[in-house]
Amino acid sequence: MTRRLTVNVDHVATLRQARLSNEPDPVSIALRAETAGADGITVHLREDRRHIQDRDLILLRKTIKTVLNLEMAPTKEMLGIALEVKPDMVTLVPEKRRELTTEGGLDVRTHSETLKRFISTLRDGGIMVNLFIDPDAYMIKQSYKLGSDGVELHTGRYAEARDRKQREHELKKIYDSAVLSRKLGLKTHAGHGLDYHNIKEVAEIREIEEFAIGFSIIARSVYTGIEQAVREMRALIR
Ligand code: PXP
């Protein structure tokens, strides 16, 4: 199986928004990432529009040739946008206004009825739906019951582990979750906090079909250009 890499271009927009300017343009960088071999483009349209703007999403839909994955919170506003723009895939994520980045997986326990409705409305609109969840057996079984197409396993705790023991513990959770997810027939993706070093061990988990990586690729692209940064990450996950 060839594993896929989707490149999250949010932080190109972060830089642009720092000066409320026209550049750098995440749409243009996304097209260059595709040329370098990215299998898809991910953007997170946040409620506060701190980085990606509605215009970016619309232009990406019109221009990219691979797969467009929209990360969004399960809100009425976002549902309307998704049904209009029609990304290939929506990844539902929790969202807090003050967080620097998405801090944890979706709470699929408390919000199950709302999530179920969201998932079926999006799927009826022809959009594939993944849930961004912590690597945990209950969360995976619940995602399956709610009718999602797949899951994206949150790798943030693994990425932030301070020592080998903790990292191995987190890696085992990701491995067990990926095995269970595939057993249930769910699409199995992973992401958050992955970089050119910590990707190596998670990339050995063959059950993971796709990685969503943003910050480390955009950071490296400042030195190397986006094409080289994408090619290097792609080589590591394949
Ligand atoms: N997957 C999800 C659901 C995310 O929210 C993010 C961050 O926007 C990523 C992947 C990418 O994380 P990072 O930028 O740390 O690579």
Structural overview:
With 238 residues, the protein is α/β, with parallel strands linked by helices. The chain has one domain: Alpha-Beta Barrel (TIM Barrel), CATH 3.20.20. It has helices spanning 10-18, 26-35, 54-63, 76-85, 112-124, 137-145, 156-160, 164-183, 199-203, 215-224, 226-237; strands at residues 4-8, 40-44, 67-72, 89-92, 128-133, 150-154, 187-191, 210-213. Strands 1-2-3-4-5-6-7-8 form an 8-stranded parallel beta barrel, surrounded by 7 helices. Strand 4, helix 5 (112-124) and strand 5 (128-133) form a beta-alpha-beta unit. Helix 2 (26-35) runs parallel beside helix 3 (54-63) and helix 10 packs across helix 11. The structure holds pyridoxine-5'-phosphate. Pyridoxine-5'-phosphate (PXP) is lined by residues 8, 10, 44, 71, 91, 93, 101-102, 132, 152, 191-194, 212-216.
Features:
binds pyridoxine-5'-phosphate; alpha/beta; TIM Barrel; 238 residues; 8 strands
The description of the largest β-sheet is:
8 strands, parallel, barrel
Average pLDDT confidence is 95
Q: Topology as H/E string?
A: EHHEHEHEHEHEHHEHEHH
Q: Could you name the CATH topology?
A: TIM Barrel
Give the class from helix and strand content and strand pairing: alpha/beta
Number of strands: 8
Question: Bound compounds, please?
Answer: pyridoxine-5'-phosphate
Terminus-to-terminus distance: 9 Å
CATH architecture field? Alpha-Beta Barrel
The overall number of domains is 1
CATH class category name = Alpha Beta
Uncertain spans, ≥5 residues at pLDDT below 50?
A: none
Proportion in helices: 40-55%
Strand content: 15-25%
Radius of gyration: 17 Å
CATH evolutionary superfamily: Aldolase class I
**DSSP helix count?**
11
Give, in spatial order, the strands making up the sheet with the most strands.
Answer: 1-2-3-4-5-6-7-8
